């Protein structure tokens, strides 16, 4: 239940609204923004109340006066400068510096006594190590200076969905964490090392969020796919060219499954290895991390082996949406490239839902309960 509207949230860099979908009906979005017209159009197409609270434009152009009061602020700021595949320009990079546009708003709200009591910052795992960890220290310092305690979890969407998508979630709060502190499988080595690099005053503000393990995932990549007769397959020569790019170990994995009788579905990425382009396939029931169809990463290819026949095709936007945890009722852009861009830049819905249930609701509701007691 949404307690008297107390579970109100702001969603920055909202994209197609996947954090909102994950938070669900127990939360009320009172403000959202994104500067990208394609993502903004996707948001408007899927949320009937978008006209009331969605702002399309640069976060630096926003003012605190425009923002309603809310208990939670969610920020999935652009990740290109933190990506291990990018130039790793860090917080000084042109895209990830958009974080400071968001943070200036949080500071302005704080000065007015209106800052959200809980903040979630989601980004790629490279955030923990960018510039030798200096960027993560800077992030923690900005939170600490505004009176927040904080901790980080590294969560792979593969624990919830058949897509390998590791992301870092920094959860910061001004509310007492109470019983939410403890061990967690998401205190990965990268998180522990990032915490160890913090100076003493920031380590004192660190929270080891005791987020439990989710239930075991019960679906694999094959369950997400469209029926074979509803999709366009590559011509056989293109599939053979793809197989020719595989290293011996990957080609052997294909041949083993070609010789078997069971249907096998694999996910393929093209990568540069030792100056050569290679195709790498995985048959572990997971798709590789969905990415936007631009920049240095190729669009993900599916390899299907059935009765000794190997076929290949590109992943569809609807399949990508399922791999992000969205229902088939979610309206995708008409363009395939636009649809894949919205998905590739999004946050996995079940991860957000799990965070809401295990951490965010208890934190926000504890604040509500304390106010009621006063």
Low-confidence stretches: 83-88, 369-374
Secondary-structure class: alpha/beta
Instruction: Name the CATH class of the largest domain.
Output: Alpha Beta
* Whole-number count of domains: 2
Report the span from N to C terminus: 22 Å
CATH superfamily of the largest domain: Vaccinia Virus protein VP39
Cα shape? globular
Largest sheet: 7 strands, mixed
List keywords for this structure.
374 residues; alpha/beta; Rossmann fold; seven-stranded mixed sheet; four-stranded antiparallel sheet; 12 helices
What is the element layout, followed by pairings?
Layout (H helix, E strand, L loop, with lengths): L7 E5 L5 H6 L4 E7 L2 H10 L3 H4 E3 L15 E4 L22 H14 L6 E7 L9 H12 L3 E8 L9 E8 L15 H8 L3 H4 L32 H9 L3 H12 L4 E10 L2 E7 L18 E6 L2 E6 L2 H7 L12 H9 L4 H25 L1
Parallel strand pairs: 1-2, 1-4, 2-3, 4-5
Antiparallel strand pairs: 5-7, 6-7, 8-9, 8-10, 10-11
Helix pairs in contact: 10-11
Textual characterization of the structure:
This protein has two domains: 3-214 and 343-373, 3-Layer(aba) Sandwich (Rossmann fold); 227-315, no CATH class. A hairpin with a 2-residue loop joins strand 8 and strand 9. It is globular. The chain has helices at residues 18-23, 37-46, 50-53, 98-111, 134-145, 189-196, 200-203, 236-244, 248-259, 317-323, 336-344, 349-373, and strands at 8-12, 28-34, 54-56, 72-75, 118-124, 149-156, 166-173, 264-273, 276-282, 301-306, 309-314. Helix 10 (317-323) runs parallel beside helix 11 (336-344). The longest helix has 25 residues, at 349-373. The protein contains twelve helices and eleven strands. It is 32% helix and 19% strand. The chain is α/β, with parallel strands linked by helices and 374 residues long. A seven-stranded mixed beta sheet has the order 3-2-1-4-5-7-6, sandwiched between helices. Strands 9-8-10-11 form a four-stranded antiparallel beta sheet.
